[in-house]
Amino acid sequence: MNSDAVGSATNALNSLTHVEAARWGRDLSTLLRITRMNFRHPWQVAFAMGSTIMAAILQLLIPQLLGRAVDQAQTAIGGGVAGSAAGQALWTPALLLLAVSALRGLFTMAQNYFAEAVGHHVAYELRLAYYDKIQRLSFSFHDRVHSGDLITIGMLDLQGVRMYFSTALVRVVLLTMLIGIGAYMMISIDLMLGLVALSFVPFVAWRSSTTQLRLRATWLDLYERLSVLSRVMKENLAGIRVVRAFAAQSYEMLKFDRASKTALGLANDLVDIYVPSTSAMTLSFFFAMGLVLWIGGNKLIAGEISVGTMATFLTFMTILQMPVRQIGLMVNAFARASSCGSRLFGLLDQEITIRDALEARPLEISDGTLRFHNVSFAYPNVENRAILKNLSFEARRGETIAIVGPQGSGKSTMAHLIPRFYDVTGGAITLDGQDIRNVTLESLRKAVAVVQQDAFLFTTTIENNIAYGDPWAKRQRIERAGEFAQLHNYILGLPAGYETVVGERGVSLSGGQRQRLTIARTMMLRPSVVVFDDSMAAIDAGTEQRIRAATRRFAKDRVTIIIAHRLSALLHADQILFVDNGEIVERGTHEELLAKRGRYRALYDLQARPGDSI
Amino acid sequence: MDQGPGELEAERDDGRRPPRAVVGSHRIEEEMFGRAFDKSILRRIWGFVHPYRAKVFVTIVAMLIFTGTQLLIPLIIRYAIDQGMNPVASDRSAQLAAVGAFLSAILVNFAAGYMQETLDGKIAETVLFDIRRAMFGHLQKVSLSFMDKTEVGRLMSRLQGDVNSIQEFLETSVYSLGDVALLFGIVFVMLWLDFRLGLLTLSVLPILVIVRIVWLPRARDAFMAAHETNSVVNGALAEAIHGVRTIQSMDRQQVNFILFDDRAHANLRTQLIAARYALVMVPIVDGLTGLALAAVIVVGGSMVVNSRIDVGVLVAYLFYIQRFFDPIRSLTLQYSIMQRAMASGKRLTDVLDVKIDVQDKPNAEVLSPEMDGSVEFRDVTFGYDPNRSVLKNVSFRVNPGETVALVGPSGSGKSSAMALVHRFYDVQQGQVLVGGHDVRDLTQESLGRQVAMVLQEPFLFTGTVFENIRYQKTEATRDKVMEAATAVGAHDFVMSLADGYETQLGERGDNLSLGQRQLISFARALVADAKILVLDEATANIDSYTELQIQKALIKLLEGRTGLVIAHRLATIRGADRIIVLQNGQVVATGNHDELIAMGGLYSKLYYLNYASFDDIPEHETTVQAGSQT
Question: For the domain with range B375-622, which CATH number is right: 3.40.47.40, 3.40.50.300, 3.40.50.10540, 3.40.50.1240?
Fold first, then answer.
């Protein structure tokens, strides 16, 4: 029993160190990767590093120049040198100081500028890579990953990686130079006094590192809390009618206060972590300075050092104070870059599952015949739950195929397979005999258009939204698409007509109007296959009828697939497929299916006389 | 359209950006900077700080003490050098006194700094949360017409960005006072130590001030541009993430990538320009510091040589010079912070000053749950804009337990009538009575408890299914919740979710289908257990099975309650006890289905037109009929 416990504890420990080691390995490789990206701008890196070294050396010259000046003034009194000659002698250190200060400023400027430039160039490259990746990752990836997380990675994590060069790498060089050489110089001037002057360094270095890491943890916590608070407020405002309808204002205030109080508590924690630590660091610095004054004072009295040396030491200390405090920031910068970087690279390294095959060729449309050959499909991660099972059907140019069936029967999935939003897991889909997996994605998606259920509008003008798939389109064609979708008159009634801005920050459209805009958008393309994926649900029956009439003319030279609930939408289809549980259970024309008295007939009865069923 | 669209390929001209393609544009920007000093806004901000004024006072005192010790330390060093460490005439007691003074100074410095920073940081945070709470609370009460015309995003930027800039302003204000004190202190001490040397050293200050004044507006433009391009590029990224499905299905990746590259490159460029502006100050400040140091060494050094001043004074000067540019730097920054805070403060007060139209009377009554549940409109006239009435002299009564369907074309005033029952707005003329009481004489809270509403778009909150169903009655037990869910037919699908009733719903319940959300919102209304139910039926087309379920649930929901239903579906309309036909804000007919059909008016016309939903009927179909009805 006892040995078991020990054994499992050791195991746990082993696995822990294992995990730790893996983490360190990953951290290291992430940091190496960022470093490599930085070094792809070798000139800027070289300039930044060179300037850093120069700036540090120049800064370290200042205390000695000051000390020398003080000594020169001091000895002039003691040595009884003629006033004017002593005055002359002071010019040299003075001019040197002026030159050194100005040069140091220039090099610091160069150091920071080139460091920023490296970071911004890397951020620019990463941003493009990220954007490209996001655009190409397949639907199944986007289904799985929350959009908010993707935004956080693309904004905050990218910043963390950008800052790595200036806040971590350059700082390592700067701090090593300043503290290392500074300490060496002080110790070589006077060992004892040097050690005393440096006594605050270990404490401040340790304190600032631990504080920064704690601050970071608390800050991340706070960030999380603030996003909860922001969600509470946003939902309240968006759902304000529900809140009022249920007279739930006091409950909402309670929710707000709860979220707000934890956030405020954490914000105060930040102050409580930060302030004692900085105050303690300042105190320890001044304490060391006090010791220098005391011990140095004794040495001064004993004649072992000069007033100038004293001034040198005090200036050195002032110069070293900031870099020592920045050790914590530097540690934090490494930690931040490695966690941000691993998230960002994790995404950039994602494999794109749906892409062109090696020998993919552009799709060639001849007859425009779409065929499903024993198509099966299951979503990734739930492979054991087949959504579609051995589905086969064929549609020729000019034909309209209607798909009906209960919710979750797999209708939308069928629509998503044709443009390869997902790949079939069994069987094949062909267009004019070409397996859609063997043609280029670009040519396939030009040939196949899906009018989606939930219409996404871009925050831009209506005309730009309609022309989304064809941004070279002429205004006239856009208006024709608007007429087609029965939206033209409504648009003309808007204050800026087709130039009205819609979307998140523009005029808000109703669900039906959005769907009509999506239809117009799709009509701008010249698809060989067009799929209406339940895309008229929010459009009233009258308008729908008119759109249908227009569609029928449009359908002459393409394959049209309609997924819908309203039976009126299906009446004119050449073939109706009744899908349930991923299988086609009935197929035929409206009349044939009614005569069959099966599932379709039952649905028809339900819809035709809804009042009677209650 | 029949021939299909025109010549896409021919129009394409490589190298030219597509004229109608944009990514992440059309941002509506707000004014970022206001006047630096606006008395009325400062007074409002002070109103929020007022409760903490004692602490603010302590903070300022601590800050002054802190600044004092900072000024004192070089003076003590000077004393130590001149009196305590003079190799010629060393004075033990002076050395001890200097070290003692130094120790006390740094301890006081520590204590005062600690106190000032802690208090200052916490007061600013607390005030931020107070302002945000005041605004959020105010938004719970302001009229819905304000909420209708204000975008959520805009309010959110009030509640987040704007309160943050006030917080930043409050936090830095105390530091700025400290900077002013430090600046004056240094000037004073330098002049006091030696007037002429002080004057000489300080002569570089005006140079810096002039440089900053010239630099500030240009630099700010550069910073703004960098900020702007950054939010544009982030906006474009967010757009790609949200719209990725559309982008892929429209095959816009390549075009978008080129456009995004433009945006990202503009950001790179402006960021580097901004960096140049920020960094150009470094050599200027360093050069001026060097100049001041050199001047002190040459002039001060000769003064030491001539024994006009002690060497300690020289050392003290060297210390002060290294400090005195800091306050100027932070004070110019503070100027921008203040301008930003004033602009934000203006926007905040605009929200806080929105009038609350609907308020409880001082002696408002509590509506008893025992009331009869009747609803009556007496000559009600109402409009969002008082000059344009949406309802005109509308009178009707819904008896206890009765279900009345409101029908009519869109814009006929149905939704407004529904909103008035709940007193979302106040009528201009006439009265709305619930349970025999004028709604304006009742407390809103008790009225809300007795009038449950189901809105057309089922809005659910983030949280579990369980929490959503008992949204109004947070004390409802699990049994009660399950009972309600079962009654409306939601129980089965809830149980099929991953965690049953404990399943977390995504933002706005987006992991459920529309029909499912509808059923949950029904269960929510059932748990609220109000005497009166006001319901706006969903127009969206759901599949027939769910539809059937919803119809059944509706009957359950209306059982034993007074129901006022804005009906769109024939099934619902026919199931009602009575139908009120509204047109252009007036009641044009009342009766049951058969009676109205027999009357042969607008209703029968609508019915025979065979539209699935009554609001969908185009205007021209209804206007013809209007005259003959009234």
Answer: 3.40.50.300
